[in-house]
Known about the structure:
Layout: E1 6-11, H1 15-27, E2 31-37, H2 40-50, E3 54-58, H3 66-76, E4 81-85, H4 92-97
Parallel strand pairs: 1-2, 1-3, 3-4
Amino acid sequence: MSKEPFQVLIADDDADMRGVLRHIVEKADGFEISGEAADGEETMQKFEQLKPHVVFLDVEMPGIDGVECARQIQDTNPATVIIFITAHNKYMSEAFEV
């Protein structure tokens, strides 16, 4: 009996970074991309619609930033795994708090 793959949502305002992450996830056994989002509002809409197990989440996005998205996701479903993606050190401590 095979297990269902973990559903993944990729949220990043940089289309190239979404492409890199998509490529990595597609090569990983047991994971499947359920959707992508380019800003915070779209991230939350897709999260509510798709109910992914894992969210790759850019910290700095237009609208709702990634840290606030993470807070809302954790309030909705604390079992969701959030993996922050950022090139900015200044967000690290706040991201780890969430």
